[in-house]
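<purpose> Linking amino acid order to shape
<body> The protein record starts here
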Amino acid sequence: MRKVILSVALSLDGFIEGPNGEYDWCPPPSQKVMDDFMSKIDFIFLGRKSFEMMGSSAFPGKVLYVFSNSLKLEERKDIRLMSGDIASKVREIKKSEGKDIWLFGGASLVTTFINEGLMDEMWLGLVPVVLGSGKPLFQDIKQRQYFSISEAMPSTGYVSVKYVYKKRRKSKKTL
């Protein structure tokens, strides 16, 4: 079964963008790290804003699933539009044969995947900067989610931490 992996850079105070949408604080991963990661995936999930920012040619050889209820897009072999009830569609894709899936973003798509229990791993690049404001990675999460740390690796300018989703635990009531 395929895994959905969120891989994104994050400031120490939890932002994926600065207050003006900037990414200048975020060092790029090394080519080797990026090549290794890309060799393990064949699908990329991204929201409309991320797709419009990156374009259709940013990930050659990969199939892009663009999640949007408003985007009008002519589907191609390498670009597919997802709308409506995405949870059941994503579960079907996860059951199909192939490599893992990169959940590229954005923040509202991440929220949906967490709330629907669709994400399997998070690879967060923790950049040693406090932005003070910007776009938070996590917002409107409906209930507590548990992950375990699987791996941590220093990289150039940040630390990459791999978290693996754990089944939900019932919260203990306090007296």
